[in-house]
Design goal:
This protein has an 8-stranded parallel beta sheet with strand order 1-8-7-6-5-4-3-2. β7, α8 and β8 form a beta-alpha-beta unit. The longest helix has 16 residues. The protein contains 12 helices and 8 strands. The protein has a single domain, classed as Aldolase class I (TIM Barrel, Alpha-Beta Barrel), CATH 3.20.20.70. It is globular and about 50 Å long. It is an alpha/beta fold and 305 residues long. α3 runs parallel beside α4 and α9 packs antiparallel against α10. GO terms for molecular function: 4-hydroxy-tetrahydrodipicolinate synthase activity. InterPro entries: Aldolase_TIM, DapA-like. This is Dihydrodipicolinate synthase family protein.
């Protein structure tokens, strides 16, 4: 499948049963909701997918299952977040052998790699696979920034094709376009900065709250691309308090709470994460329920297959 780097790519949550096993029944319910709403790609095993607590077997089982359910309707990408180059290459090759359509790639985990080390890491993985790659640039959470000069060095790898822009600096979208034109496709990766980034020219949105609100997320993206800015802004202003749950350390718990509230998931997380309780829980539920109480009617044609 040729990668089409555009549209909303949900970073889906990993669903667990009460017995802490993979919950494919609930996962499939959510996955179909994403596809029905018009998602144009699926990303597995990201931060929101609780990658750090999944075994390799679980990651690959999740990938194989998703590829089977999606059945070619949209690309399926596996996130790679590994501590060593050797392990990252192993994951990339295994993902390719199982039929993944692409990869999302983080810098080395748990080591503050220098720019040179980061570039060698990315290059080694790119050379190990034919799969198209999105570089996830999130210096806020992962402490390593991929600078414009570093991206310039990565242009020699044809399969490094896209950037998940999560620096929290909206101007970086413009800087990337000014420097590279359309060499890299740019995806906004911070929900509460999504509309601003798409207006500035981002090609897509790796989204989190889409897991609970797929139609609204797709509608915002499509309306902006149709230059129906006022309509998109109305939805976005309604959505923003919920979107801000995406930039909290407990984003996994918060977004799973939203999934449960909209009937698209459960709140089950894997330890060391714990369920949100007390005043914090009430605060988050109020944000979600306040939004649900005035959920907007979406313009015709703004979402769907």
């Amino acid at each position: 499948m040729k990668m089409k780097w555009t549209g909303v790519f949900p970073a889906v949550t990993t669903k667990f049963t009460e017995n802490d096993e993979l919950d494919f029944e609930t996962f499939d319910l959510n996955l179909e909701a994403q596809l029905e709403a018009g998602a144009e790609g699926i990303i597995l095993g990201g931060s929101l997918g609780e990658a750090s607590v999944l075994s390799d077997d679980e990651k690959f089982e999740l990938l194989s299952h998703t590829l089977s359910v999606v059945n070619g309707r949209v690309p399926v990408l596996l996130n790679i977040a590994e501590s060593t180059t050797k392990k990252a290459i192993e994951v990339a090759r295994k993902a390719e052998s199982l039929g993944a359509n692409g990869l999302m790639l983080l810098p080395p985990m748990r080591y503050y790699a220098s720019p040179e080390e980061t570039l060698v890491f990315f290059g080694a993985i790119a050379e190990s696979t034919d799969l198209p790659i999105m570089i996830y640039n999130n210096p806020v959470d992962y402490k390593i920034e991929v600078t414009l000069d570093m991206f310039a060095a990565l242009t020699k790898y044809d399969n490094i094709q896209a950037i998940k822009e999560s620096t929290r600096d909206v101007s970086n979208v413009t800087r990337l376009i000014n420097r590279f034109g359309d060499r890299f496709k740019i995806f906004t990766g911070v929900d509460p900065l999504a509309m601003e980034s798409i207006v500035m020219g981002a090609d897509g949105w790796v989204a989190g709250l889409v897991d609970a609100f797929p139609r609204e997320t797709v509608a915002i993206f499509r309306l902006i691309k149709q230059n129906r800015i006022a309509e998109a802004l109305t939805i976005y202003r309604w959505f923003l308090p919920v979107l801000e749950l995406d930039v909290h350390p407990k984003l996994v718990q918060y977004i799973k709470m939203a999934e449960a509230a909209t009937g698209l998931g459960t709140e089950n997380v894997r330890a060391p994460r714990l369920a949100v309780e007390g005043a914090e829980r009430e605060k988050v539920l109020k944000i979600i329920n306040d939004a649900l109480a005035v959920r907007p009617v979406l313009p015709v044609g703004s979402w769907g297959k």
